[in-house]
Structures are given as C-alpha cells and as structure tokens.
Amino acid sequence: MMAVNPLTTMSAGHPTFPCSEALLEQALAVIPLGSQTFSKSLTQLPRGVSPFFVDRAEGPWFWDVDGHRFLDLTNGLACITLGHRNPLVDQAVRTQLERGVTFSLPHPLERQVAELIIAMVPCAEMVRFGKNGTDATSGAIRLARHCTGRDRVAICGYHGWQDWSIGTTSRHGGIPLSVRELSHTFPYNDLSALAELLAAHPGEFAAVILEPMNIAWPQPGYLEGVQALAHQHGALLVFDETITGFRFSNGGAQALFGVTPDLACFGKGLANGYPLSALTGRRELMERISEIFFSGTFGGETLSLAAAKAVLELLSSQPITEQLAAAGQQLAERVSKISADLGLAEVFGLSGHPSWMIWSIRDHANAGNSEIRTLLLQELYSRGIFTIGSHNISAAHDQPCLDLVVQAYSEVLPLLSEALMTAGGVGERLRCDPLVPLFRVR
Length: 442
What we know:
Layout: H1 9-12, H2 18-28, E1 54-58, E2 61-64, E3 69-72, H3 75-78, H4 87-97, H5 108-120, E4 126-130, H6 133-148, E5 152-156, H7 163-166, H8 177-180, E6 183-185, H9 191-200, E7 205-210, H10 222-232, E8 236-241, H11 252-257, E9 263-266, E10 277-281, H12 283-286, H13 302-317, H14 320-341, E11 348-353, E12 356-361, H15 369-382, E13 385-386, E14 390-392, H16 399-419, H17 425-429
Parallel strand pairs: 3-13, 5-6, 5-7, 7-8, 8-9
Antiparallel strand pairs: 1-2, 2-3, 4-10, 9-10, 11-12, 12-14
Helix pairs in contact: 4-13, 5-13, 9-10, 14-16, 15-16
C-alpha cells in the first residue's frame, strides 16, 4: 500500500475508506459492533469519514487498510507509551519467542518483572499478574472483600467491565440487582460526598476504589482525605492506576501525588501494547490472594512479561515519563492558544495530565457537543491526525510530530469557529451522521 502524506494529499480532498467500510460490514456479521473493544468500534468513530481497521504501525504512525498514514494520538487507548514497535521491546519479545511463550511451570520473568514493579511503585510489596485492567481491579475488589469481611464498594471513575463496576452505569444489562446494590459511586474532588456515603452504611464498605486522577487534578489534600476516610471506616484504599501507572510517573499517580494506597492496579503502560496487568499492594494483604481464587492460564505468558521487563528497564534508565509530560504540555498550550484566540475556549478545551489530555467539548447555542465532536474528528482525520478525543502521548511524538498536530488544529479550529457562527453551520459541514451520545464512564 502507498503511504499518504497526512497534511498534503489527504487535506487536498476528502479521504475515502472503501477497504475499511468493506471490512466493517464483514466484521459486523460475526463480531458485535465489529470490534472486540468498545472504544475502537463504530460507537466512537463517525462512519464515512473514519478509518476502522489498521494495517500496521511504527513509531508515532499507523497505516490503515486503505493506505492512509495517520499520526497516532490514541496509541492503543493509551497503552503505547514508547511508540509502536519500540526496537528494544521488539527485540526482547523476539528473543523470548525463540525460547517459548507459555509453559507448564512458572518462568523467571514473573519474578524479574515483579521485582522491577516493586522497586518503582510505593505501595507494591508483592505482585500478581493478569491480562487486562479489569483483571487487576476485580482481583483487588475480591481481595478487599475477603480481607475485610465486607461487601460494599465505593467507586469513582472507570474500572472495567465486571459486574461490580459497570453495574453502576446505564450499561448494566445482565447484572443482578443484588450485585448492583453493593456498588456506590461518589464524585471526584468531593470529600463530603464520600464521607456521607461511607457514613450511610457504617461498617459495610470493603474498599474505596478510584482513579487517583483522570480529567481533573486532585484538589490539595483530596487524595489524603480519601485515604483517611477509607481507613476511618475500616475500608481499604485501592488506586486504579491502569492509565496513570508508568505514564504519569514511574511510580504512577501515587508517587506523583505522594499518597500510598493499600492496593493498586496497573495495566496499559506496563508493556507498551502487550497484554499485561498487575495487582500490587501491601504484603499482608497480597499474601491472602492464596485464600481467594485469582488465577489465569496466561498470567505468566512470557512475551508480555519480556516486553514489560524491557519497558520498565527503559523507564528506569531514561526520563520517559518526564518526556511524555513535556510533549503533552507543549501540545496542550499551543492548541489551547489557538482555541482561545478564536474565542472557542468555552466550547473546546483540554483537561487532564499532559501525558493524557482529554477533549472537553461543551454545547454551543448553534450546535450540540456531539455535532462539534464529530466535525473535529472528521477534519482531523482528513489531515492525517487520529484521535478519539484525547492526546495520549508517546515517546515517539517528537517535535515534528507535535508541529504536525498543531498545524492540523490551526486549520480545523477556525473551520469550527466559522461553522458555529450560524445555526446549523456545523451540521452542514458534516459529511457523515453525527455521533450518538453514549453512556459516560468518567
């Protein structure tokens, strides 16, 4: 396939995606939503102006099945921190592949990677591996319930698809009411709300689980306050660091903010795209995993462990997480300036940590946020920039890459500003149906 220059050929006309569309029709016949992952499906991508299938990737780029090259700002839903096909990670995997993948006994890599995590993460005294973030968070909740002898869970943020978590959202089909009633949500940065929730069911909460940061920064003393409230009520504090771990800092958000939880869960940034997650925590808690059943055939699969070992050694020897933050901060400042200069700051902005910034889109008098979001995606895709609404920075995003992204926004945001000047102006510029608003996990 011929690679397409993202900022010349594609912006000269409207790119088409015939191969993606054909593959999507075939996939929809055998796969619900056409994808194994909700966030990679047509629920997130405006059909007719989006690629749906990737062919290959390298560094900061991927090529879709129609041959278009995209600068990747999604990076496998934030699991790619070093860039696609990092040479050191690839070589580690090739070397291990020649020795085998899954064995009839544990492999030394299990201990080696666990030791690297323990050296980097404040709360980690022992480690148990899984494959997805949901494995780790669900293991943490089961362990917390076992150790405390309690059933209720206080939840803030997104923690995967298991019943105890997703049952608190509108996507609770198939989850018994008796299970849903044991999970309670609380808003971020609101200590009084958490205090009221815990007090309403004294002695019944096993755990308080939250993403230590997602869209908003923690207010001064907030995480410390959550920790104090959890312990005051006899509950364990669990940090879900599936995204923040090995991205915000080498030791995750707990190291960045100086608050050490009882248990913590890691995933996406652990192995640069290879499937691996980890449950970590205090020794006296983790040792009790032997009393519950948290086990999987592929927990010790060695290709992912070899990748993780290479990633963690690289993070330990180079200032990768600082590089991610610096690149993301520069990009956010430049894009925010364009938005502010156009008077769009009340409509479009960026929130979160610089290494993982999320679009904040608000309704406008002349267009709803779904229309605005769709137009932004449509126009960024036509300029070879791929995102589903965030800046997931990787170490492969060098200065020329950042400049390409800013150039694209400098063309797209003025177009949005002009479209918002008249009622229906955004809709008139869409070459597809606007995305349908879906349930929010954060």
